[in-house]
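New to this. Please check this fold:
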Amino acid sequence: MRPTMLMIRIAVAMALAPCWAVAQENVRLALPKTVYAAPGIECNLYFDNVVLVLDPGDYTFDVNCSKGVQLAECWRYAPGADDAGDYPLTLVVRNGENETVAEGATTVRVAPAGAGSGGEVSMLLIGDSLTHASVYSQHLLDLCAGDGNPRLTLVGSHGIDEPLGANRHEGYGGWTAKRFATQWTGVARTGPYAERGSPFLYETPEGSRVLDFKRYCDDVNGGKLPDFVSIFLGCNDTFGADEGNIENVIDDMLVHMDALVAMIHGASPAIRIGLIQPVPPTTSQDAFGADYGTGQTRWQYRRNQHRAVERMAEHYAQAPNVTFIPAYVNLDCVHNFPAASQPVNARNDETVIRQNNGVHPAETGYRQIGDSIYGWMKNQVMDHAKPEETSP
């Protein structure tokens, strides 16, 4: 049948008319169950860090909480001395048509200002290059040196000071959960860190190799078990993944992270473990170009990081004495990463500021990570019982 003039006009009108039907949007919102805070320390929830979208400017964010203020890029709250308690927070994400495309809830938990005051606590920090930098670890020591805090002792065999001082940990650039769980070189806790084996792995008289946290504490901490352990891994585990293998890569990471958790709780189930999910990268591709040439894009890394956050939240949701330290929500990825001025190109003397490190924050960013750990620790010490060793 030949189309009539009326049919042609209707088809043209339909093609030119605005389309009001909005495709279903997959905006993956990853809010932590709890955001830990402490009086006198700024707490942030950066919107771009909790949604997986290419451009957060395409969306609007609506926070409902009795505390804090909503800014353009984040919700911000600096608790006062009398603000101890739990505060529900909801976040609704809407598109340009004002349709809700994602929503979630969390609890902001503020510790009493004097939580842990007069006491003593110890903590082991396990991690990769972000821990190796030794900035957030020093920040934790500095915060705990103030009034109203417990005296903090950090446990570990590694640090940037020679000889090793109070700022110590088990953080090594480039390391993964698998390396901490399985790497054996015959040398641990001494020599170039890139050539070391896991500080927790020991050879038995029968020739097998086992993770032995009690023996590790015998060697580095006079036999005392730490009160708290944080595990801050995932950056290197997932760095090279893509859409085709990210699930398998995270599966492997979780197997080895499980081994570390089991090792720690094998020494004492009372040890509080704080898992720090991978933090987002800088917001600029410039930094990935500076670091990796064409080897990785910021968007692929961000997708990998977000999926690791989701999978870890699911995997450890019911794990006893394992909670999350959601540093990923508190990191300013726009302003708190390294940047430098450089010419716009070789033929133009005009300069621009470009970020130049994709995954390692500036000192200000490391301090925000330390703030998150401090808020978690202050909340944990309120009802903390000292770990007791299990029987051999």
